[in-house]
Amino acid sequence: MAQQHDRILILDFGSQVTQLIARRLREAGVYCEIWPFNAAPESRIAAFAPRGIILSGGPASTTEAQSPRAPDHVFTLGLPVLGICYGQQAMCLQLGGSVEGHDHREFGRAFVDVVEDSALTQGVWAKGAREQVWMSHGDRVTRLPDGFRTVATSDGAPYAITADEARRFFGVQFHPEVVHTPHGAALLRNFAHAICGCRGDWTMAAYRAEMVEKIRRQVGKGRVVCGLSGGVDSSVAAVLLHEAIGDQLTCIYVDHGLMRANESEQVVATFRDRFNIRLVHRDASDLFLGQLSGITDPEAKRKVIGRLFIEVFEEEQAKLGGADFLAQGTLYPDVIESVSATGGPSVTIKSHHNVGGLPAGMRMQLVEPLRELFKDEVRILGRELDIPEAIVGRHPFPGPGLAIRIPGEVTREKADLLRRVDTVFLEEIRGAGLYDAIWQAFAVLLPVRTVGVMGDGRTYDQACALRAVTSTDGMTAEFYPFDMGFLGRVANRIVNEVRGVNRVTYDITSKPPGTIEWE
Ligand code: XMP
User: Of the candidates 43, 56, 99, 404, which lies 20 to 30 Å from 391 by C-alpha distance?
Assistant: First the structure.
């Protein structure tokens, strides 16, 4: 579907930040895809028809035998190429230059001196300027291939920016895709727009119209079911599908009774009443809470919830008389083929359950209308579709819900208590205007009772923990540095307003070594 849009191909050498290159290009209105460096035969590239190619950074050293190289045809297609960090080094080496390891390694903030003008820096950095960048390299280019010249230098990299303008090949030793290179996004925009000639025609308004057509073509007169969770992805997928196929879509909302306060009501009000989407709301809280009874192990809880969710979903789906398609809110980061740095299997820290992950074993075809989008694009599309900000801007919420915020056995009473604590915390966060600055904030009900004193009396009630973190993708996180006055106010309100809780703690663990959720 994105066939009509000008596009750029990113070949990945395994850098931690390759996805950021794609995000910066998308922000500049340019469609792009990330492929592993070794999965780009000439015929596949020709079919994709990019206007330019970017070679990402990567963890290897070009000085090692067997280290990755770009396919040679990348340099003979007549397309502009931008090599970033490892990508620059591989390009220089492959075109006849040389790269060496060096004692002067640069990690983190560094400065480059711009010594020449170039199409890459045009309108962004002037000749003679000294500019901040973010570096992460040990090796560096030591001799340029024929045709290249130096555009900028740094203390650790004599060839911090290089250019062969005749062939439209450019290299940067630093990472323009990270925010710590303040003008990096503008450099990438220059590459995409000025050098590759992309028009910037990738917008969510265009996506919406094209995707509606595409869904209609795929689904025909078939019937579609969509699991709704109240989160951003399934909500946007549902509204987009509804716009395309109206009543051929039925959403199923399996309510496990472990949502936040008022969220189930809000889901029903938004999708059934406001958007007029056919919605089955199945209150399965008795079933879920019944089967969770006596279970304390976090993985066991997750497994029970995941299994029940699928059972209930299938039951509701069967009551509808079946469907031809299952809609899933799969996002682009879920489908990018990864370049494994180690090649080894990774350890399961938590077995995730989410609505988007219903097994395709249900013998329905999949409709995945968000498959080409990053999370921030899904939010923009959601606003485009007039989905309320309370849903589009909502913090992530785990599929197993409050069950993994109640260490120990989960009961209805504990879930109710936790909802009340959580509500106070979030009210205060919203009131202080901090909601959007935080990735996720929530309360955890601890399986601990502590002694307190209220008025003249002794209390012996439960303790809770508050958790708030900043993050960009949930993979790493830092605790949010509230001021102490704010935390004191929240604690005071919780202990005074929520009978049954008499102590409040704040979790200051980062991820790693902690995780965001407690279980
Ligand atoms: P952790 O706790 O692993 O969480 O640091 C990282 C992010 O994932 C969310 N999370 C889940 N999301 N199903 C989901 O859809 C799950 O089973 C699940 N477990 C954790 C968590 O809230 C955080 O945003």
Answer: 404
The secondary element (H helix, E strand) that includes residue 143 is: strand 130-143
* Closest ligand 1 atom to Cα of 404: 19
Q: What angle do CA 150, 154, 155 make, to 5 degrees?
A: 130
φ/ψ (deg, to 5) at 16:
-65, -25
Gap between the Cα atoms of 31 and 203, Å rounded: 9
Whole-number Å distance between alpha carbons of 396 and 356: 13
Of ligand 1's listed atoms, the one at least distance from the Cα of 397 is: 22
* Strand pairing report for 249-255 and 278-283: parallel
The amino acid occupying position 365 is Q
Q: Which of 63, 19, 11 is nearest to 36 (CA)?
A: 11
Tokens standing for residue 209? 């119209």
Q: How far apart are the first and last CA of the chain?
A: 40
Distance CA 92, CA 141 (A): 7
Paired strand residues for 326? 225, 366
- Output the CA 241–ligand 1 centroid distance in Å: 26
* CB 228 within 8 Å of CB 329: no
Which residues are CB-contacts of 275 (< 8 A; sequence separation ≥ 6)? 238, 239, 242
Rg (CA), the chain: 26
So which residues are the catalytic ones?
85, 175, 177
CA pair distance 121, 414, nearest whole angstrom:
58
Task: Determine if ligand 1 sits within 6 Å of the CB of residue 473.
Answer: no
Which residues pair with residue 388 across a beta bridge?
Answer: none
User: What tokens appear for 175 in the block?
Assistant: 């990472």
Backbone angles phi, psi at 441, to 5 degrees: -140, 135
Provide the residue type at 403 as one letter.
A
Question: pLDDT of 44-54, one tens digit each?
Answer: 999 999 999 99
Confidence of residue 472 (pLDDT cuts 50, 70, 90): confident
Give per-residue pLDDT as tens, 286-312.
999 999 999 999 999 999 999 999 999
Distance from residue 13's CA to the centre of ligand 1 (Å): 27
- Contact (Cβ atoms closer than 8 angstroms) between residue 369 and residue 237: yes
What spacing in Å lies between the alpha carbon of 481 and ligand 1's midpoint? 21
